Amino acid sequence: MGAGGIVVSIRNKEDLPMEKKFVPVIEGxxxxxxxxxxxxxxEVSGIRIFGKLIKSLVFTTDIAIIRNCNANAVMAxxxxxxxxxxxxxxxxxxxxxxxxxxxxxxxxxxxVTSLAEDAEFQGAHGVVVNAPTPNETLExxxxxxxxPIVITVVSEKTDIGKRLESGASILNVSGADKTPQxxxxxxxxxxxxxxxxxxxxxxxxxxxxxxxxxxxxxxTPPTNGEIFKDxxxxxxxxxxxx
Length: 242
Prior knowledge:
The protein is α/β, with parallel strands linked by helices. The chain is built from 8 helices and 12 strands. The protein has helices at residues 63-66, 84-93, 110-122, 135-144, 160-166, 179-189, 203-212, 224-235, and strands spanning 6-9, 25-28, 47-49, 52-54, 56-59, 73-76, 98-101, 126-129, 149-153, 170-173, 195-198, 216-219. It has an 8-stranded parallel β-barrel, surrounded by 5 helices. Strands 1-2 form a two-stranded antiparallel ribbon. Strand 3 and strand 4 form a beta hairpin. Helix 3 (110-122) packs parallel to helix 4 (135-144).
């Protein structure tokens, strides 16, 4: 126990695999209740963007989750028309790099570019456009922003070469149970393209995505409601009732 209630966890060297470096773990009592991403995600290579190595991205727009998780970055994409005020709130509140959704599906044309420019000016680490985004929009967007353009890929039929040629910097593969298959196909054709991919909620599904060639993994955390349910069930035990 250190000063201020900080706990330093020191594991025996005998407990550590020889190929891994020893990592000291420092935790505090008040911050011990966090959303922890599966450790297997650490097996990816990561993508170094503006000097920061990113292996894991938490898929959420919940500021409370963002401030209480151990992800390397935030994938802030949501199923509504992107609004600058939401982007501003996320970037201002987050202590992690934020990749902001700027449309490309329902939201098209110059509006996408305006949203992307605004996100960059606010400090976004990258902008994310949806799968239906036309290549013409990517070309125009590339001329307007310097931050990485992340294009979502949902099918093996996507012309990846044309997406990259049009200005995409990173691929965000989100193909549900077909994600590993899509990632493997892309990796065989484009050995060095940066790939972020959804890994699912189990170590086995994440491992399949990593083995297929993903450089970084997006993880969908439990909702506030789900976390509260576990906490309230604990509080309902008699020893917590005053």
